[in-house]
Design a protein that fits this description.
Helices cover 81% and strands 0% of the residues. With 67 residues, the chain is an all-alpha fold.
Amino acid sequence: MAFFFTLVRPMVRKFFSSLISSLSLIVAGIWLVIRIILEYFGFISDGNDRTTGIKDLREEYKKANYR
């Protein structure tokens, strides 16, 4: 019986370890997508709008008053 536990315990530990790492990767990916969407629509800013130019384009569009 003890031999069985010495075989099963590392397998269970490896299973939970890989499960936790997979879940953390999924959560990180979802967070990245949510951040990109929120930044695109202007709800949040990382302070580096210069590189994307989204904020400037939005302001230019408002000033030009296209119809």
